[in-house]
Amino acid sequence: MQDPKQDFLESNSSLDLGDVLLASGKGVVAFVVLLVSVMLMVWFERKVVSRLQNRIGPNIAGPFGLLQTLADGTKLFFKEDIIPTRSDRFVFQLAPYLSLVPAFLTFAVVPIAGDFSSGDGRVEMFGRQTFIQVADVPIGILFFLGMSSLGIYGIMLAGWSSGSKYPLLGSVRASAQAISYEAALGLSLAAVLLVSESLRTTDIVARQAGEGFFGIVPNWNVLVTGVIPFVVFLIAGTAELNRPPFDLVEAEQELVGGFHTEYSSIRFALFFLAEFMNTVTMGAIIVTLFFGGPSGPNFGILPGWLWGFVWFFSKLIVLLFTFVWFRGTLPRLRYDQLMNLGWKILIPVSLAWLLILGGIRVAQQPDAINLTSSAQANTYIVLGIAGVIFCFCTLLLLAAVSTARRERLKTEGLVAVPMEVE
Amino acid sequence: MVSVVVFAIAATVVLGGAVGVIFSKNPVRAALSLIASFFGVAVLFVIQEAHFLAFVQVVVYAGAVVVLFLFVIMLLGVDKTEDLEVEPLAGQRSAGVLLGLCVLGLVLGGLFLSGPGFGEDAGTKTEGAVALTGQQTQSGRPVRFDESLLEEGERPPADVEGLAADLFGRNVLAFEATALLLTIATVGAVVLVRNKGAEGIEIDEPGTATR
After folding, report:
1. Is the pTM of this model over 0.90?
2. Distance in Å, alpha carbon of A341 to nearest chain B alpha carbon
3. What is the ipTM of this complex?
């Protein structure tokens, strides 16, 4: 009999050169695409914000000012690289990379093209059926959550290692904010996973391909999960990116430049790059989760997989415009407002919505506990009960919040307590 | 071959991180080494095809627990190099070494005394382990899922499904009990921290600026 250990090790190594080349080729292409898209995103953001503020924006370097980012990047390369004497040198130099690498890695699980309407989204490359994404991991969307939680380290360590108080304050704010909003992010994402029944990004996209209600409305998760998870995800995502109106991390009036105050030259550029890379990736993740990713109708002329890319790209542009629009329109939140929004509104709402969606699914299952004979009546009863519980819990939460507030104000002596008449 | 190379790299990272945690004089660097170690463990899980476990490892330990460590270190300002010659508790260091050796002995003993380790011995691999790694067992030894058994276009079963069936089916009571325990712990922590009447932190609330 063959040694089982040997057998196991050999079965693990069924890779040949083609697989390795394909994987590394995809990685390189994705890196280049992401870098170019970041360059364009910086230009896009500056242009749109300028227009929103009645300015023209960059228009000198290249056609429409397209090469402005390239010029700025080159300038940053030649600036003096300063490392403060009071800093922790090793961590100070490590931090920019810690924020850049997760930003790039997240993009690996996003399918950016492919024909999901008539095929299963795969294309043939070098004789292999493969998806147009770097890695089709079985836990795709968890990978995104993991990377976004790792991205905090870059900011946190940058602030700490600078050895100066404003960066430290900025980084403490950033990590508190990211931890608070990650819960809302995860809970609203769970609603999508509930209807997709898979963690794979390709499965999530494939489920959204095809037609939804009445044959005209797309079968996107944003509608199927009832809009609320999308709204929560968008807000929590913006907070996770530290973008306006949640950019207390780098509030210029209070913290000079926030966590990267002490950074200069190429290290600063890396932070800048990571921030915009995160924005593009977050947009791509939202498109994948809620707007059907590369799925969409196929009008001929172009090959099917290219239509996928066209759809993906147009949806992405709309979302990125929304991010810029937020920035141009909304004033920055105060710190307590930020925390109130995260903990007292977004988390309870997304949790309640997840429970209602779960309840509906259970009611519609054929082998569920049947209250009535028809599945439809079952659903209505579940919805009714869920509504009553939802209202009750909302009242309870509001009562708890207002009681806690009154108690605190009373102990601090800030509220007139009815005094005994002397 | 590939898995051996990956294992060697990941194991080096795990051990290097562990050594770094012990020998770093700076708490923040020790925490960084801890992250590296956790990350290596996650890679080890991935080679075993336990993708879900790997990313729960990253999200929970590397992403949340160590962030809280760092938070405390930074806020309390204990990030100065401490005098390592002074033991906070008398005899702590020798007790720690002793305990470490005991654990090492237990693990090695378990490894070598439990009969032929890798497979062969039927029933050594429990159902839970199979659920975690998504591996199938044939006469007790772990093998990779045979993809030729699948229908055209069908995918191998994900490890998440096995885990979910185990967690929410068989062990649902333990799961709920754990959830309740954590809630109680959270409430307890909040109650303990709220010391009434003491000097609180001044918070800017709208409408409280004027007395």
Report:
1. no
2. 14
3. 0.74
